[in-house]
Design brief:
five-stranded parallel beta sheet, globular, alpha/beta
């Protein structure tokens, strides 16, 4: 089912301690946001992300950085898998070594995206996860 066939957009939570990701995402996905295909929310660390999920009630996809203060992406991934098993998770990291990628996938992530963030790859990943 596509977002157009749904009665609501896909809700995507981006978790990254770098605030510039907010502006870049909103610019890159401007058309999709205006068309009602996606709604984006932002959190600075894993704990903020859990608070945002509880506040929103509906998150379809989490795209999280690995290295963040308070709670890193791997800890967030584990908590989301336990508390919210229907939320799809994508890990994002500047450390794109095989060990990190494998740990993310073994932990339940649907995908692993390397930094610097390629918004074309991000867009394709969202299309794949939110058909």
């Amino acid at each position: 089912m596509s977002a157009q066939e749904k009665d609501r957009p896909y809700h995507v939570l981006i978790v990254d301690d770098e605030e510039d990701i907010d502006i870049l995402t909103k610019q890159r996905f401007r058309k999709e946001i205006q068309a009602g295909l996606f709604a984006f929310y932002f959190a600075r660390n894993g704990q903020d992300a859990l608070d945002e999920i509880a506040r929103r009630g509906v998150i379809d996809v989490i795209m999280t950085d690995v290295n963040m203060p308070q709670m890193d992406g791997f800890e967030l991934l584990a908590k989301v898998r336990t508390r919210y098993p229907n939320i799809k998770t994508v890990m994002i990291s500047a450390y794109s070594d095989q060990q990190s990628m494998q740990a993310a996938l073994n932990g339940g992530a649907c995908a692993f995206i390397s930094k610097p963030l390629d918004f074309g790859v991000l867009q394709q990943t969202l299309r794949d996860l939110c058909p």
